[in-house]
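Final report, closing paragraph on structural work. Over the funding period we assembled a curated collection of sequence-structure pairs, and we close with a single example.
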Amino acid sequence: MGGYLFPTAKKTKKLENFKGMNGEHHTAPVTPVDFFLHVRAVRRQRAILLSIRSWASFVPLGT
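Its predicted structure, as stored:
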């Protein structure tokens, strides 16, 4: 997605492709539209609040 939003930006060397995860109760498969949002703030509460509000915009209503 970064290449789509920022086609001229250099890809960071630390960025890796998501390999998927299988847990005891949940599975996170690899999909062509995986999205990673890195939130950083001086105050932890602000990072958490922004994360919650950002995540809410991706969750369909009624779930």
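Residues 43 and 49 are 10 Å apart (CA to CA). The mean pLDDT is 77. We thank the funder for supporting this effort.
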